[in-house]
Write the structure tokens for this entry.
Amino acid sequence: MRNVSVERRIRRRSEHRSRSTAVSIALVVLAVVAAWIGTESVLRAVGAAPLLAAPQTVVDAALRPDPAFLTIAELVAALLVVVGVVMVVLAVTPGRHHRSAVQHERGAVVIDSRILASTAANAAGLAAGVPEGNTSATARGRSTEVRVVPLTGVPVDQSVVREAVQQRLSALDERFGRRVRVHVEEKGTLA
């Protein structure tokens, strides 16, 4: 008996990136700032000299700033805005890997887009009759783009190449063979 919800969860985890890196960075920064404030407070309580600057000195400098402090504060504020925007983008965007799930009777199967591109380039090279190095492909989602550099004097039929790539990709999953674009370069290479 197949457990569809488990397979769906496995596919989703394989296709989407975790946000744990961004969360870990934010927590480390927060922990460092909290540790600094705590250390400075303890040092002030026992009457020792501060490590970097006493928190009260920082607050006093912020309330009565001089021109040098304003420049530093503006740079720090700009840096914090950039970091904040990056964190918000990481939190909101879905974070997809370049992978696609394929239906299979044995369970969850996930194919990397580089494998799809390599398969498309191989099929194009065989259909065009060119060496392996004369074809390249990129696969994004369900669309694939293939580039073929023909051998000088040997014509390449674009429709034959497209049909071969579509057939090969459709054997993996019919969704992959739907949008295939083939570009044959005008200038060829010597054999």
In short: Residues 39 and 46 are 11 Å apart (CA to CA). The beta strands are 99-102, 109-112, 135-140, 143-148, 179-184.
